[in-house]
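Changelog entry

Holo records now carry the ligand SMILES as an explicit input line rather than a separate metadata file. Below, a converted record for pyridoxal-5'-phosphate, shown in the new format.
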Amino acid sequence: MGSLDSNTHEDHTSTTPFKPLDPEEFRSQAHQVVDFIADYYKNIETYPVLSQVQPGYLHTRIPQTAPHHPEPLHAILRDIETHIVPGMTHWLSPSFFAYFPATVSTAGFLGEMLCSCFNIVGFNWLASPAATELEMIVMDWLANMLKLPTTFLFSGSGGGVIQNTTTDAVLVTLIAARDRILESIGANYMSKLVVYGSDQTHSMFTKACKVAGIDPRNIRLIPTTIDTGFSLSPFSLSKVIEADVAAGLVPLYLCATIGTTSTTAVDPIQPLADVAARYGMWVHVDAAYGGSACICPEFRHYFHGIEGVDSLSFSPHKWLLSYLDCCCLWVKNRDLLVKALSNNPEYLRNQPSESNSVVDFKDWQVGTGRKFKSIRLWLILRSHGTANLQAHIRSDIQMAKMFEGLVRSDPRFEIVVRRRFALVCFRLNPDKCSGPEYTNLTNRKLLEWVNSTGRVYMTHTVVGGLYILRFVVGATLTEERHVVAAWKLVKEGADALLKSK
Ligand SMILES: Cc1ncc(COP(=O)(O)O)c(C=O)c1O
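Structure line, unchanged by the conversion:
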C-alpha cells in the first residue's frame, strides 16, 4: 500500500543495485513483521470483530497510483495499522463466532512461512520430489487418523491430494465421474447426466456442476426437513433417481455432507451410498467442517459406510489449525482422476513421470502450479500430535455445549436444531402467538444489534422457513470467558428488543 506522504517526497533513488531478496535485509524486515503479527494477535481483542467501515472507505485513504520510489517497511506497516486493520473483520478474534472458523496455530504459521520460503512449484514429482512425497505421506497420515479404509491410501488403489478449496475437490471428482460414465455410454449423453445433493448442500456444489458442464436443469437439490434434522433421506434420494431414470436421464454423482453449512446436519453415508451403488453413481462426501472432528473416536461414527463412497474431502483450514487454503481430498481410484485430468506437454516431460514410478499432482487438480502445502500440515501434525488436535476439537465442542446450556437456561430462547459439533443453532422465541414472521424479524434485529456493538460477530441462516442465529465456537484464541461474554451480550440485546416491543 502506498504510504500517504511518500508521493510528495523528493527523489531518493539510490545508486546501490536493486536486490529484492537480500538475506540480511530479509532477516531484519521479517523480524519487524513477526513483531507486528505477534502484537496483532496480542491486541486482537481491542478491535471491533466485524469491521465497521462503509463500502469504498479505502479509496479515500490511499493514493490512486503505486509509488514510483521504494517505501520503507515501517511506513507500510504503519499504514496497515491505520488504514487496513480498521477495514478488516477479525476472523482470528476470540469473539468471532460467525460462519465456520478459520483456525490457525503457531505450527500452522511456521509451516506457512516455510511453504513461502521455498516457493517450489511442484506440478510434478521432478519439480520438487520432497514436496510430492511429503504430500503423499501426510495425506496417508491424515487418512489413518480418520481411519479411512486402506483403499483411500497410496498403498491401496487411491490416495490423497491437497486442493485449494472444496469447490476444487468436488470439481475434479465430478470430472472424473463424468468422464468415466461418458466413456462407457458415449459423449452424446452429456446433457442427460444428473447430479444429486440436498437443499443443505453447500452452494459450491452447483458452481462446480456448472463448471463441469452439467446442465443446470439436471442438478437435483432434494428437500430436507427439520424432522430428519435437515439430513438427506435415502428414501427421497431413491425416489428422485427413479423418476430421472424413468425419464431417460443418467444418474452421475451424489454429494453427501458431514456437517452442513447451515446447521451441521449429517447425511447418512452408508444408506445413501447403497442407493447410489444401485445406479453406478459416484459418491463424494463433503466433510469440509465436520471432518476435523472425525479424528476423535467419538465422532468417527459419522463416517460409517465410508468404504462405499468414491471420494471424501475435508478442510483443515476450517477447524484443524491450518491456514487457508487447505482442502484434503482422497479418492478410492486414483487412476480415474489422473485419466480425466492429466496432460503431457513436451516441456514437462521427464523420465520419472514417463516410467510411471511417481505421482505428478498436476494430474490431480485443475491448475498446473501448486504450493508446498504439505509442509504446513506436516508441521501441524508433528508439532501438536493427534492428542492435542483431538483436545482442541473437544475443547471447542465443550465451549459450544456450555453456550447451549446458557441458551437453554433462558426460557425466552430455544435451540432449533440438535447440536452435533461446535455450532449452536438457536433463536429468540419472543411470543409464540405473534407468528413466525414476527419471530424471524425479531431474531434478525437481535443479530444486527449484537453485531453492531463490534464486541462479537455471529451470523444467521434460514432453514425450514426459520431465521436462526448461528453461534460457532472455533477461533483458536477463544476461551470460556469470551463465550460467556457473548451470551451476556445476546441477552442484553434481547432485553433491549423485548422492552421496546
Ligand atoms: C459443508 C461445506 N462445504 C463446502 C464449503 C465451501 O468450502 P470452500 O470454500 O473450501 O470451497 C463450506 C464452507 O463453509 C462448507 O461449510
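Spot-checked after migration. The chain has a mean pLDDT of 94. The chain has three domains: 18-47+51-87, 120-371, 382-499.
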